[in-house]
Amino acid sequence: MKVCLACDARFDADSWVCPACSRAPVENGFVMFAPELAASIEHYPSEAVWELAPREELYFWFTARNALISALVSQQFPDARNLLEVGCGMGGVLTRMHAEHPDISLTGADLLPDALRVARERLPGATFIQADIRHVPYEEEFDVVCALDVIEHVDEDDVALGEVARAAKPGGGVVVAVPQHMWLWGAWDELMQHRRRYSRRSLLELVDSAGLECVRVTSSFSFVLPLVYLSRLRSRTLSDGSDPYDALRIPSTVNRALGTVMRAERALITRGVSFPVGSSLTVVARKRH
Predict the structure, then answer these.
(1) How far apart are CA 104 and CA 98, in angstroms?
(2) How many domains in the chain?
């Protein structure tokens, strides 16, 4: 079901024209629900799209994260027919989902049109909209809704997760991934304009307050946590002259080795292991009826 963000009406239609108030979102390459924020750098640095785009398909962190999410969706929601990712960025997760689950209908939403353009080039068959995670224009529409490394970018993370949950069907799935452990706070968090890193308790409380029941929770990037910690010690703030993107510029042999380590970690997670510590935290939940 679609939601008119102008008058809050609910409707089922092919068009986004609201039958109650006749309002329609702006179209400028994409259907845009937050055009006033399209060029905003308040929540995410615009240059990061171009810094990360050429690395996203190869860098071990992205490939490991994308593979883990796809595996968890397949394992926990095998009957899913449609999926929304809010904060889809350049479509890395959706691309992996399509490769492994070609029958699932995919929709991606993001604040930045530049990121959506990259995503659409990768997945021309998917649907993409420009939207603010604090105002998601869907209700009870999707079998699975993902919010991956996005709610930490907004002050109102409770509102954001509530909107994510609203878009899921009753009994449907919600997958949330966030950066974990405030003691890992560093230059990367500042560059990416994070508001916080999470503890397991704080994220689970947020999930529960959004009307979601936790099915699985685990840390990830646990096997590489010592390396992450050491890299954060090297550059705690942006003012020390370091380049936070240096962390993405590692030799290909190291990248392949870390990818192998992460495949081993993913195998354990999909077999039911829940790691207590790691640089990321993932919750798989179901929306309460």
Answers:
(1) 7
(2) 1
* pLDDT over threshold 80, residue 247: no
DSSP count for the chain of H helices, then E strands:
9, 11
Inter-residue contact 245 to 51 (CB < 8 Å)? yes
Q: Which amino acid is at 53?
A: A
3-state secondary structure of 255: helix
143: alpha, beta or left, given left = phi > 0 and alpha = psi -120 to 50?
alpha
CATH number at residue 57: 3.40.50.150
Residue 197: both structure tokens together: 């890193």
CB-CB contact of 169 with 142 (8 Å): yes
Q: What is the DSSP letter of 276?
A: S
Q: Is residue 159 part of a domain?
A: yes
Q: What is the DSSP string of 204-234?
A: HHHHHHTTEEEEEEEEES-TTHHHHHHHHHH
Instruction: Decide if pLDDT at 234 tops 80.
Output: no
pTM score above 0.85? yes
Is residue 254 assigned to a domain?
A: yes
- For 225, the domain range is 22-287
- CA-nearest of 91, 97, 90, 88 to 67 is 97
CB count in 10 Å sphere of residue 99? 11
pLDDT tens-digit readout, 91-112 = 999 999 999 999 999 999 999 9
Residue at 74 is within a domain: yes
- Kindly tell me if the per-residue pLDDT of 191 is higher than 90: no
In the chain, pLDDT over 70 holds for what percent of residues? 95
Q: Say how far apart CA 180 and CA 196 lie, in whole Å.
A: 9
- Cβ-contact 216, 284 below 8 angstroms: yes
Residue type, 115: A
Residue located via tokens 């939940």: 285
Q: Is the residue at 121 inside a domain?
A: yes
